[in-house]
Specification:
Radius of gyration: 23 Å
Strand order of the largest sheet: 2-1-3-4-5
Number of helices: 9
Number of strands: 5
Oligomer: single chain
Largest sheet: 5 strands, parallel
Length: about 210
C-alpha cells in the first residue's frame, strides 16, 4: 500500500457500502483502497502513504474515534472524513476538535463527499509540502557555524546589526558578513521567511523564554 499519488482510504465494516463507495470514488478518477476494519488499516499502513481517510465512526471493537486518537498518538496526520449513520453531535464535535476535515451523515450526498475528499487531499498536500520544507531547513541549519547560529538567534529576535554587534562584542561589519552567510546557507530570500521557518521548527527568539 504505497505510491506517489493521493489515495482515498475507506474504512467501514459494511461490505456493500465499501463496494459502493469504491465504485463512486473511482468514477471520479480517485485512487481508492478499502478496509473492513481499523485493525486491517493499521496492519497495512505505510508511512509514505498519503491522501485521506474516509472513516465510519461506528464500528464494533474499534470505532472511528478510537482510530483517530490512535493515529494522533502515533504522529500520523492523515486528514479524516467521518461517516455516521446516527448524526451524533457530541461525537462530531469531538472528531472536529481533534482535526477531522468533515463529519458527514449516511446516506452521504455524492457532491458533499467528493468536495470533502478534495479538501482533505489538498490539506494533506500542503501539510506534506510544509513538512518537507522544514526537514530541509533543519538540515541546512546544521551547516551553520556556532557563531552564525548565535547571530541567527539575534536576527530572528528582531535585533538590528549594530545591536547584535554590541551584544556579541564585535563590529557591525562582521555581523553583516555572518548574516549574509547564514541567509545564503539557509537559502532564504527574506527576513520574513527566515523568521517563519525558524518559528515553525521551534527556534525561540532571545528574550522569549
Amino acid at each position: 500500500m504505497n505510491g506517489s499519488s493521493p489515495i482515498v482510504m475507506v474504512i467501514d465494516d459494511d461490505p456493500s457500502l465499501l463496494k459502493a463507495l469504491e465504485r463512486l470514488l473511482r468514477s471520479h478518477e480517485l485512487n481508492v483502497t478499502t478496509f473492513d476494519s481499523p485493525q486491517e488499516f493499521l496492519e497495512q499502513y505505510e508511512p509514505d502513504l498519503h491522501g485521506c481517510l474516509v472513516l465510519d465512526i461506528d464500528m464494533p471493537n474499534h470505532n472511528g474515534l478510537e482510530l483517530q486518537q490512535k493515529l494522533i498518538a502515533q504522529g500520523i496526520e492523515l486528514p479524516i472524513i467521518f461517516l455516521t449513520g446516527h448524526g451524533d453531535i457530541p461525537m462530531s464535535v469531538q472528531a472536529m476538535k481533534r482535526g477531522a476535515v468533515d463529519f458527514l451523515t449516511k446516506p452521504v450526498h455524492e457532491d458533499d463527499l467528493i468536495e470533502a475528499i478534495q479538501s482533505a487531499i489538498e490539506k494533506d498536500r500542503v501539510h506534506r509540502k510544509t513538512d518537507a520544507e522544514l526537514t530541509e531547513f533543519r538540515k541546512k541549519l546544521e551547516t551553520l557555524t556556532p557563531r552564525e547560529r548565535e547571530v541567527l538567534l539575534h536576527v530572528v529576535s528582531g535585533r538590528l546589526n549594530k545591536q547584535i554587534a554590541a551584544d556579541l562584542g564585535t563590529v557591525e561589519k562582521t555581523i553583516k558578513v555572518h548574516r549574509a552567510h547564514l541567509m545564503t546557507k539557509l537559502k532564504v530570500r527574506s527576513l520574513a521567511e527566515l523568521v517563519r521557518l525558524s518559528e515553525k521548527i521551534g527556534i525561540i527568539p532571545i528574550g522569549s523564554e
